[in-house]
Amino acid sequence: MLVLATLGAPERRRRLGQRKRRQAEPEPAPEPVSTGQATIIDVGDPLPDEAQARAWLAGAGEDELGQGLAVLNRALHAFRLVTADPYLHEVARDQALVARIGFGAGEQVAEGQWTEAHELVTVARRQRRAAVLQPQAHLAAILSGRHQALACEELALRARLDLDHSRDREAALQVLVALDATLAELALDPTADVLSERLSELRGRRDSTALAAQAALAGPIDQESLESIRFTLQRIESALRARAVANS
Length: 248
Hints:
Layout: E1 2-7, E2 35-40, H1 50-59, H2 62-83, E3 100-103, H3 107-110, E4 116-119, H4 129-144, H5 151-164, H6 168-187, H7 196-204, H8 206-218, H9 223-247
Antiparallel strand pairs: 1-2, 3-4
Helix pairs in contact: 5-6, 5-9, 6-7, 6-8, 6-9, 7-9, 8-9
């Protein structure tokens, strides 16, 4: 069961069809913003008593949270489709302001409350200085016009999102488009000579990727096709990372 709520900011009402302007203060105070609360309740296998609930909670953690996020993201994806709103998107673990896991009874959990819970805190991983600075340098190069942002980079990201959220048919179709764009764009890129072996490998992946995409048009794809799609996307991503390094 998924329960959604909006917290925090007062509702701001406006009449449809009317747009007004008002004078802005030179140093305006921050506007209050609303926050969303999503509560995922597992009602499939109720815990028999509080003692067993506490035992379950003691061992619960990121895996259970990941399962809850999967439920939320499936709902967001469905809502995106039925509202035809391209700006709705899934949420990632690190986008959560607070993540809690716990147990409770009846209406208590439906209101986002619990008998007992604990907060899951992520620990930031220490990264090498070069790994931190490289994306920043690439961003600066794109924004300044020194490097060109490629269509295949965006297409690969979309394919990764579909694959990570088990939208296998969409991923198969998206990977084929990303592959064709990668082959076309990197062949004309200044780094083409450096990436020649990678481009040759990707050309060799084209037939199997096209077959998987063709199968996806007819219905669910088999495990072998899915693994082929996964591998092709990994090789596209690897080639794009190599391009970024060559341009740095």
